[in-house]
Design brief:
alpha+beta, six-stranded antiparallel beta sheet, two-stranded antiparallel sheet
């Protein structure tokens, strides 16, 4: 739940060995008589698009051609690369949405497309099977660190859902810097170049993370998807904190917390001019949340950490899901500056708990 123990955990990188991928693909190839529907669907949609695509480019239009992997071509009007059918077939596979972003999968499919487009002898089905084998075996554990504004941790780490909130102290920054430097050492840059990169990275860490509240989450996904999912998980955890704030602080206290940029504390400035005077007004909107043992004990009494346990699980009960959705809309309501919007979103929050059926109103 919370404590002062070290917040740092090891990261394991386990790329699928090429021999495993090849064996997986060969096994699928041996079952060619029952070719996976995904392979046929992806191959058909890519070939259909390739047949309608202008390649090689013989007539330059008044806009540049598409360019993928060094291959120039013109897609037919209103066509998309990759086709929706091919992308959908990948996203339906087990755990693909949890591990891969749409951008990542689109790039993989686009590379297959240009190979099919430029090489009439390209074995599309075989290479689709190789791609599926590679993606099925994908395993990359990574940590994501996200700066959270408006939260001041007083000498402790806090676990909420799948997220750990940590103070951006010298120990955490050093851990992050060392991990990045191990990657920099693998590059082909010169010693001078690597030294410059390391220094620049440390300076950026100190500038953006030092003294801040850092949300940390570990998951198995490629980098783009890991960041997408991490932001979602951090926002879900902050939803619980916002509920706790409203229950433990005065309603008029404008405490603002969130991922940097979501609901920031800002200084509102105004200048009033006339022929004889200049008047200025500066007002800070929003104050930070101080997280100490007393606040965490209050959250415990409110049952916030029981909801936190549900957030950390892979599957929740229907009641837990309804409570989590209700808290989310309550959190969104608390971030509104317009009172009418706040009221409407509070009604939505109640509806998720009490409405009789999907789409029904509690009125």
């Amino acid at each position: 739940m919370y404590g002062t123990e070290s917040p740092y955990v090891s990261v394991n990188y386990s790329p699928a060995p090429s021999a495993v991928i090849l064996a997986f693909a060969m096994n699928n190839q041996n079952k060619a008589s029952s070719s996976p529907p995904a392979v046929d669907l992806i191959a058909e949609s890519l070939r259909d698009l390739a047949g309608k695509t202008e390649f090689p480019v013989t007539f330059h239009r008044n806009y540049p051609p598409n360019l993928q992997d060094g291959i120039a071509f013109y897609l037919p009007d209103d066509a998309k690369l990759p086709p929706d059918e091919a992308l959908s077939a990948l996203l339906k596979r087990t755990n693909y949405r949890a591990r891969f972003s749409i951008k990542f999968l689109s790039k993989k499919l686009s590379s297959l497309f240009v190979c099919c487009l430029s090489d009439p002898h390209y074995q599309l089905e075989h290479n689709i099977q190789l791609l599926l084998a590679e993606l099925d075996c994908f395993s990359q554990e990574r940590r994501v660190f996200i700066r959270v504004e408006g939260v001041v941790l007083l000498g402790m780490c806090v676990d909420i859902g799948r997220v750990r909130l940590c103070p951006g102290d010298e120990h955490l920054l050093e851990e992050m810097a060392v991990a990045a430097e191990r990657v920099i050492d693998l590059t082909l840059a010169s010693e001078e170049g690597m030294s410059s990169l390391k220094k620049e990275h440390r300076n950026r860490l100190n500038e953006r993370m030092k003294g801040a509240c850092i949300a940390m989450i570990q998951l198995n996904a490629e980098p783009i998807r890991a960041i997408e999912l991490s932001k979602e998980e951090v926002r879900r955890s902050l939803d619980l904190l916002r509920l706790g704030i409203k229950a433990t602080h005065r309603l008029q206290d404008d405490i603002r917390i969130g991922i940097a940029g979501d609901h920031p504390s800002v200084v509102v400035e105004a200048i009033a001019l006339s022929d004889s005077s200049v008047n200025t007004d500066m007002k800070r909107v929003g104050v930070p949340l101080r997280v100490d043992a007393s606040f965490l004990n209050d959250l415990e009494q409110l049952g916030i950490f029981r909801v936190s346990e549900a957030l950390a699980r892979t599957r929740c009960t229907n009641l837990e899901e309804a409570i989590i959705r209700s808290i989310h809309w309550f959190s969104v309501a608390s971030c509104q500056d317009d009172k009418s919007n706040t009221f409407l979103l509070l009604v939505v929050s109640l509806e998720t708990l009490f409405k009789k059926a999907q789409g029904a109103s509690i009125a």
